[in-house]
């Protein structure tokens, strides 16, 4: 079958993240999902069965499939997101297994930043707790389009439908207040395997899909042609050989949308306009390319284009040096007003100044707190930045790829902060006054 922009929506890859409070059974759920979907190698299963027998357990403890991560944490090793890969006959999956404790909020941000779906786990005995709201807020902040509420340990509440219904109603209402539009609630028992991969015989009152069935069928990829094309230039190709004496191509990965030969485009930040003269994929000419293909684009006009420029179709973003954004601080070193940083946006890196930290967001209540003292690790807040060169950012709510950026320490290259252009939630609003720094011009 010929692959076209219209068939790209049928792609079989789903990126999703899991999140849950400590002891909600996330390790068991991930283990059960891998085991029951036949995604565990025989030697791994034998090792788990052996370890379980040594503990006096009759059945294999599937949580041991993910206990390596927990053991590393207990040894004091810095933990990031653990990625797991598995597949079924219907779809391939990349699972970002994120730590659940409040101190690892930054890790969930990392794991969910590229996810198309988030599975939020809840202990049926405890219901919606503070950490549940935190996970829902992070998913909303990162514009994860689909959320699955997995109400776990239903076996410990006697598979009671009213318990599940009350939790689902409370969580769905909270998620809706954050702007999350698609929430699917599934009652499960990860330990017993109810509704994880196979339907439960204990919950005949539930008529929805199992967790895996929903993961296999959820429509997470839209039509690329519905998004404006964004092509960050990564490399300029000039062979200057006898075979290709005048070839000039711009290589990179199409961040969003569709590009066709003949399309009018704007090169940013210069603002020069031209048309697409040709598209090459692996050395072969083609008439069309769509995200996330890696291609080489040739332009009709011989204009100045270099690494870091953005080739964009209309409506193109307006380049600016003044950026307001929602950020999550990832580093142990606090981010203070007046800090001089590097801002990395797609393939472009520029110097920037943190003019103002407008406020911190209380992720549990979504209330604004003073940001004058800066942002500590795991804090989420609103900042005003001034860059040395104009950047063409989309709003993160419109385009997750070209609306996101990183702040980097210019001294050692350490990643400091993850940023999302624009406001975090509809429920969080603020206005900021222009604040200038005495040494601003020395940096930007």
Q: End-to-end span in angstroms?
A: 52 Å
The unreliable regions are 5-11, 69-79, 429-438
Shape: globular
The number of helices is 8
Number of strands: 23
Task: Calculate Rg over CA atoms.
Answer: 24 Å
Strand content: 25-35%
Query: What's the overall average pLDDT, rounded?
Result: 84
How would you sum up this structure, described in words?
The chain has 444 residues and is of the alpha+beta class. The protein has helices spanning 26-36, 42-54, 67-74, 105-112, 130-141, 161-177, 211-217, 440-443, and strands spanning 13-20, 82-87, 92-97, 117-123, 146-152, 183-187, 230-232, 235-237, 249-253, 258-260, 264-268, 272-281, 284-286, 288-290, 294-299, 310-312, 320-329, 340-345, 348-361, 368-370, 380-391, 404-408, 415-421. It starts with 12 loop residues before the first strand and ends with a helix.
Task: Please provide a brief summary of the model.
This protein has 8 helices and 23 strands.
Tell me the layout of helices and strands:
Layout: E1 13-20, H1 26-36, H2 42-54, H3 67-74, E2 82-87, E3 92-97, H4 105-112, E4 117-123, H5 130-141, E5 146-152, H6 161-177, E6 183-187, H7 211-217, E7 230-232, E8 235-237, E9 249-253, E10 258-260, E11 264-268, E12 272-281, E13 284-286, E14 288-290, E15 294-299, E16 310-312, E17 320-329, E18 340-345, E19 348-361, E20 368-370, E21 380-391, E22 404-408, E23 415-421, H8 440-443
Parallel strand pairs: 1-3, 1-4, 4-5, 5-6
Antiparallel strand pairs: 2-3, 7-16, 8-9, 9-15, 10-14, 11-12, 11-16, 12-13, 12-15, 17-21, 17-23, 18-19, 18-22, 19-20, 19-21, 22-23
């Amino acid at each position: 079958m010929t692959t076209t922009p219209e068939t790209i929506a049928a792609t079989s890859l789903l990126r999703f993240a899991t999140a849950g409070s400590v002891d909600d059974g996330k390790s068991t759920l991930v283990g059960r999902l891998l085991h029951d979907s036949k995604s565990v190698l025989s030697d791994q299963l034998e090792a788990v069965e052996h370890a379980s027998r040594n503990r006096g357990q009759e059945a294999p403890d599937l949580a041991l499939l993910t206990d390596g991560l927990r053991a590393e944490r207990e040894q004091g090793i810095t933990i990031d997101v653990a990625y797991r890969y598995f597949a079924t006959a219907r779809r391939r999956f990349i699972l970002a297994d994120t730590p659940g404790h409040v101190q690892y909020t930054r890790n969930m941000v990392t794991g969910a930043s590229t996810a198309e779906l988030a599975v939020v786990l809840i202990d049926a005995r405890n219901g919606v707790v503070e950490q549940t709201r935190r996970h829902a807020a992070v998913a909303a902040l990162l514009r994860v389009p689909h959320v699955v509420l997995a109400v776990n340990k239903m076996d410990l509440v006697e598979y009671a439908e009213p318990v599940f219904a009350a939790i689902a109603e409370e969580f769905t209402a909270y998620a809706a207040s954050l702007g999350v539009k698609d929430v699917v609630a599934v009652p499960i028992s990860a330990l017993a395997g109810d509704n994880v991969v196979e339907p439960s015989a204990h919950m005949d009152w539930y008529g929805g899909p199992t967790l895996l069935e929903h993961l296999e069928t959820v429509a997470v990829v839209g039509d690329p042609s519905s998004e404006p094309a964004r092509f960050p230039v990564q490399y300029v190709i000039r062979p200057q050989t006898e075979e290709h004496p005048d070839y000039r191509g711009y290589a990179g990965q199409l961040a969003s949308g569709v590009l066709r030969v003949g399309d009018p485009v704007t090169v940013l930040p210069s603002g020069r306009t031209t048309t697409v003269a040709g598209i090459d994929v692996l050395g072969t000419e083609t008439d069309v390319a769509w995200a996330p293909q890696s291609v080489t684009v040739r332009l009709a006009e011989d204009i100045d284009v270099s690494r870091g420029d953005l080739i964009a179709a209309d409506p193109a973003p307006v380049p600016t040096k003044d950026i307001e954004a929602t950020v999550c601080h990832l580093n142990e070193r606090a981010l203070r007003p007046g800090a001089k940083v590097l801002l990395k946006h797609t393939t472009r890196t520029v110097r920037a100044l943190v003019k103002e930290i407008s406020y911190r967001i209380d992720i549990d209540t979504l209330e604004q707190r003073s940001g004058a003292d800066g942002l500590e690790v795991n804090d989420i807040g609103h900042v005003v930045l001034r860059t040395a060169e104009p950047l063409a950012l989309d709003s993160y709510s419109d385009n997750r790829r070209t609306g996101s950026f990183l702040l980097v320490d210019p001294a050692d290259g350490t990643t400091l902060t993850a940023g999302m252009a624009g406001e975090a939630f509809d429920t969080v609003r603020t206005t900021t006054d222009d604040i200038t720094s005495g040494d601003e011009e020395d940096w930007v």
